[in-house]
Amino acid sequence: MVNFPDKRKKMVEYTLFLGCIIPARFPFMEKSTRLVLSRLGCILHDLEGATCCPTKSIIKPIGDLAWYVTAARNLALAEKAGHDLLVPCNGCYSTLKSVEVKMRVNPGIRKEVNALLACAGLEYRGTIGVKHLVEVLHDELGIPKIKQHLTKSFEGIRIASHYGCHMLRPSSSIFFDDPNKPKKFDALIEALGAKSIDYETKMLCCGGNLNTSDEPEEATALARMKLNELTKKADAMALTCPSCFMQYDSRQYLMKKTGEKLNVPILFYPELLGLAMGFSTQELGMEMHRIDAAEFLSKWDSKYEYLKTLKDVFDVGSVRKCYECGACVNECPVVKINPDFNPNVIIGRLLSGELEAVIDSHDIWQCVDCYTCYELCPQKMGMNKIFDKLKHIAIEKGKGPKSFTASIEMFKKEGRLGEPSSVRKKLKLAEPPKSGGEELKKLLDHINTKGE
Ligand code: SF4
Ligand code: SF4
Ligand code: SF4
Fold it and tell me: For residue 375, how far is its CA from the centre of ligand 2 (angstroms)?
């Protein structure tokens, strides 16, 4: 009896199945995949003798058996090599996984296919797994391990995930994520610090298969729906399928040439991961994209530098912990008398790059440091701590309300904020103790000299 074990060996060695499109049209996808997986400690083996997966939309119409045998031959070769197949192309993954499952659950097909494979001295016994790149990164290598290798965060950058139908479907064969409401690719994007945005056309097919049925207008129309939405909402799109890439990158290029106002850089996920790991765009081969990612990359650079400055003001990551309960706004005494003062709006402005404008504004001087927000916040964020920092930056830059700067000057000079009142005599109060202002001034000068 053929042995089809349920439990498979855990391996960090994989056989890489690239399919036809990646080596032929997008070798930079192979480059980034190899770079990031090697950095994560994986050993990748090539599959000698591999053929087209085969592409379902083109080869299956020839006949089911031709489709099964071609895929099973690739599976048998991988089985001989002894490692799970790692597939960075949605179409190849869906085909190989579907046939692998069919061979396991249908003894009739298995027998018929293996009889044909025997003519080539091959047999598929079902001892290896077929894994999508996203599945390997999320389920096998894991987000904590990925995070250990990151050097530059995508914080503040909005990425739209495009899963692509064949990463998740058909769910009769593919089980690693929900076919309609998947989460794992989004989690991989957010692991890099980026925001994986929600958007209406998220699960819409790219329409690539319409090209094979000579329907380029329809293929363009489907691609346009997503690109139109994302031009307004996202800084870039991330995906893991060369066919989807062709639709969104190459087709977008043609659409732009005819005057369509689109601008969505398309990134193969290992490129995004590679950038966050510190690889350069040249190492990743990103100049081979049709849609130039230069603007996106420069936005990322300035955002990164800006957030580094902002981190001196407050723990930017702590904003993610906010429950949005509203207590810090609803109970703030200043909000009660001035609805234009809104601590949450000020934080939002800081995150969106308005540090200078916020420092210049009157808002930061309105916080009365009452600690109400700190005491009521379930996360103990404390807006007053943030306002303290902002006030400090403003003072360093010579900004601030006149009364405030006058008080600071007096404090620096006299060591106190007011001269003893002459009324004291009328009240027969003794002379107040001498001010230690001189000594304090020396200490403060010492701090200033140290800071220079
Ligand atoms: S979105 Fe299109 S090209 Fe991508 S996997 Fe689905 S059908 Fe294939
Ligand atoms: S500390 Fe400042 S921001 Fe917080 S409640 Fe008091 S006045 Fe409002
Ligand atoms: S009180 Fe804290 S958790 Fe609630 S909205 Fe304000 S910052 Fe967020």
Answer: 10
